[in-house]
Each structure stands twice: as structure tokens, then as C-alpha cells.
Please model this.
Amino acid sequence: MKKLLTSNEAIAEAVRIASPDIIAAYPITPQSPIVEKLAEMVDSGVLDSTFVRVESEHSAMAVIHGAATAGARVFTATSSHGLAYMFEMCWWIAGSRLPAVMAIATRSIGAPWNIHGDHTDIMSLRDAGWILAMAESAQEAFDMTLQAFVVSEKVCIPVAIGIDAFTMSHTAEVVVVRETKLPDRKQNYRIHPETEVAVNAVTMGDARMKARYDLARDLESSAKVIDRTDTEFGGYGGMVERYRLDDADYAVVMAGGWSGDAKEAVDMLREENIRIGLLRLRFIRPFPEKELKNLPPRVLVVDRANTGIRGILGVEVSACGVDCKNVIAGIGGKNVGVTGFYSLFKKFVDGRIGDVEWLL
Amino acid sequence: MVAVILPGNASCQGCPISMAMRCLDEIENPVLVIPAGCSTVIAGIHPNSAMKCPVVHSPFTAAPSVACGLSEAYKRMGVRANVIAWMGDGAVDISFSALSASAARKDDYITIVVDNEAYMNTGTQASLSTFWKARTTTSPAGKTEERRNIALLMLAHRIEYAATASVGYLRDLKRKFRKAGEMRGFRFIHVHAPCPPGWRFPSEKTVEVARKAVMSGAWILWEYDGEFRLSKEGERYALKENRIPLREYLKQGRFSHLDDKEIEELEKKIDEEWKTILKLF
Ligand code: SF4
Model:
């Protein structure tokens, strides 16, 4: 069925279809409409889930951690400071190898105060052991959320889906809502009164090292599972989307909702016979290293979050051995838009972009 | 019923927490949630476990919410379980907002606080439960802040069951564990747990110190199950003339610096606390 939905609403629809046992959430802009919608569905009986109204994001993640430990399908959503506040629990749920799905309306983290979009928050989860996905449209947010439950429960690793604050969370698009039945939840272990198991007891170096190693290895090989399930949930190209790259001399690498504007800018340059294409990273973890191998010689990475030395994606792409220029833009909702991307890419093609630049 | 905690665990000699843990046998189908603290170590280092029941270890901050998640999931799955958030006073401090929210929601599990009146697992730093004027490594001249009465605060959330208990009165403690285990809803038990290394008294004196706390009026045993009442074991100390001198209880290393005036001040605080409690019924 086709519906006019914001990405927030599209995610709520997908969660309804996935029908988690437990949803726990605390409101934060611009994520709140997701859980408000879910609360409405639960109260009206459309969705048979338990909705726990917690006093903080830390508890939201802790409640779904506890519920997942018992074997329940779980969901939460957050943004920015909310994610920062639940950060500790994010490590615990990944380290416990528990499946879970979280939506993140990706937003700046203060100070100074800013409620608008960039990728600062979701990128802070890079090392915690989560699968990190970034959607570009409400349709993709819908498909990715359903895919997230399947992947997460197959590999026993939690999944976060990023949607850009406001540009996606609060703008409506036509979405095909496909009613489907997900496979029953699977996980490695569950703790019930008759299970004589102590989970997450104190470890000495060896066991902790092994647990981190196993997680890193399984996270890496989850790329295969993602590729395989992609066809069932939209067929976007798996870990990455390749846009007009096959004959390209220049490649732009980026992720998230603003890639739509960047694609239009690519089209404009193509009309001027400049052979440029775009590699959109649909997943940041596992990092699509393999897909970065066969890029054209000249690469520009456009970032919406920075480290102390360059953009976060800039660091990651360089670490894969790709020689690239790096631009940091769109922080705190600062608009780039189609024309902004057009001039930026033009400057890049003309060789006028330094190694690392901020688009101020 | 099997013994919930095995002998040969990693607790110190005379540990009050392991004494209280033995009383968990009174509660059916336990699933323990243990945040960071002495209990984490007592419960066993991976791959060993000193507990014969399932244990979910959790971050310091998270035990009430993790317990809520477990119990809500069990409810949906039709699993009969007594989820128990088993925490020290340190976890009460750091997870207080979660604990309070959980109580307000009337989540269905038991919180047991084994209160040794400081952060013992990190080396005796002051907590909000630390007795007035007690010396800790972060209050070397004696604690100056108020002592928070967590059980009374929890009671104010209109929970199903609230009680205080002491490892000096195990029969009373066991009865309270059993009773909480047979009820549903949010249940809270605050167990006074004198800690030999942290309070600096010989390890064979745990029970004696715990009893002196009650006998001097410094720890009040009460219970609420719809009605508020003093527990039989400590009832008589409501009358000041029945109490032993507070000085007797204060014979611990952590109070060795106190002078007469300070002890008088402490007595006054204890009298005030009794006044509040006695007004409740
Ligand atoms: S420090 Fe105190 S409470 Fe902790 S294990 Fe030792 S005796 Fe028990």
C-alpha cells in the first residue's frame, strides 16, 4: 500500500510490521514522532507490544537490553544527546551479542545547542560494535528498518538506522508499505529462571579479548548477510549504492539523506560531459571496504561529522588505502543543497580542493 | 530448593553481602541482576559462578531498567520469574533516577539493596548512605552530608512492598525476602550490611555490629505491605531507654575520631529519624 510518510513515520510503520515485544523510549527532537506513533499504535491495539515509558535514554537502552536478554524482540529510537546519554548501554548490548534495532534521527551534539542535522551522533557509535546503516529516503528507511530486524537477529549484533534530522525525519514522501512477516526471533542465548548461566561476569584479559575479537569478526562478516537480505528489502545494492560510477573519472563518497541532492549535482555535471559518479555508503559498520577498491582515481569524500584531523568518513576511506580529498560540510543543519554540491564538485573536478577542507 | 550461593566464593571473611545472598533461597525462580559492586565479584569471575541461579551482570547505572526489561519480557512470554535487582548503595546513588522511575511504573520485580554504607568495591569512598561523620577515603575527616533514607524515599512512590532488614537478624530478613518473593509488583528491601574491612572492625563481628546498629537505634527495622509497622525484632528500641548507648555501636575504625560532642549530635539525628518513622503509623 502506498502512503505519504515522513521517514519517522516510515520507520514506525516498519516497526509495526516487525512487531517487537518491547519498545522503550524517551522523547528527543527530532526522533520523538517515531515513538509517539508507536505509542499510539500500542494504545489503539494496532500493535501488540509493551511500551515502557522510561525516564531517560540510558534507561531506554537498558530496558531493551534486559528484555533482549530474556529473548524479546526490541526497538528504541534516539538522537544526538539522547544517544550520548545511552552510549554506555550501547556497548553493553553489542558486547552481550544481543539483537536490537534502534533508529537515530541523526543530529548535532552540543555545545553550542543545535537540533539540526549532521552525522556527529551516529558516527560516535563506530567503535561500539553496532551495525550502522544510513538511509537516503523514507522508502529506504522503511525497508532498512525491516531488514535491520532480520540481519540483527541473524548475526546477533544490534543495528542502528540513521535518518538525517528534519530533512528526512520531518519531510513526507510516498512510501510503499509492504506488509510482510519476518522470521521468528533467533538469538544465541536467553536468560530464563532455569538457565544456570551468569552473563557478562567479570573477565580477565583473555575472555574479554576473545569476545571483542569474535564481535569484530562477526561484524565484518555481517556484510554478507546484509547483501543477501538486501534483495528482499528493496534491492538497493547491498552495502553501497553505486550511482553513475561505471564509466566515471571522478567519484564522490558520502552517506545519508543529503546524498539525494548530491546525485542531482552529479547529473548536472554529467550534462556538461564531466564523468563523475557517487558511491553512497548505505552501511558505515561494517565498513564497505571491498566496495571502495574499484573507484576511479580521483575521489572526494564528503563528511557531515569531523574528527580532530579530518572528516570521519575521510579518515575511514583513507584507512582503506584510497587516496582522497575530504570536505566537511553541513554541520548543524547548515544547508548545502543541489547548487552547493554542484559548485563543490566542480571545484573538486577542477583540482581546487585541498586535502581537507571545511565548507563554511 | 537448591542453595543459591555456593561456598568458596570470593567475598571477604565476615562479608555481610554473602550472608544476605544465602537468604535468596527464600525466593522462588530468581533471576538476579547485579550491577557493579562487591556482589559482582562475589557472584564469580568468568567462567566460574558462585550463584546457582541465572545472573545478568549490568552496568552500575542500569540495574533497575535492565530488571524492568527482563520482567516485562517474561510477562509477555508467560515465564514465571522473580527478577531481583541486587545492588549496593553505590548503585542506588548512580541509578537513582532509573530506580525511582521503575518504582513509579510499579515494575514487577524485587530490589534488594545490600547497604554497606560506602563504595566498598572501589576502596571505601563515601556514598549517600554513608553514616554521618563516618570516615571514608573520600571523607577522611568524616562525612558531612546527610544520610539519605532510601527505603523511606522508595515508600513514597506508593510501591507494593518496602522493608528494611539487617544481616544481624537473618530470621527477620529471610521472612521479608520470602514475603517479597510471594508478592507481585515493585518490592524494595533495604538490608543493613556492616562491612568488616570498610568499617574497620574484626571480621568475626559482623553480626554483633549489625545487632548493635539496631539496638542503639541507628538502624530501624520496619516493613510496609499496605500497612506500616515496626518489625518485632527492633520494636522495643523505639523507646530510647531500651537502647544501648550509641557509643557501643560506634566502636568501629571509621568512627574512631569522634569526640563526645559529635556523638551527641549523632544521637540527635537518630532521635529525629525515629520521630519521623514513628509518625508514619
Ligand atoms: S568489602 Fe565488605 S561488602 Fe565487599 S566483599 Fe568485602 S566484606 Fe563484603
In short: Strands of chain B lie at 30-35, 55-58, 82-88, 110-115, 161-166, 187-192, 222-224, 228-230. The two ends of chain B are 36 Å apart (CA to CA). Residues B 11-12, 15-17, 38, 42, 116, 120, 195-198 surround iron/sulfur cluster (CB under 6 Å). The mean pLDDT of chain B is 96.
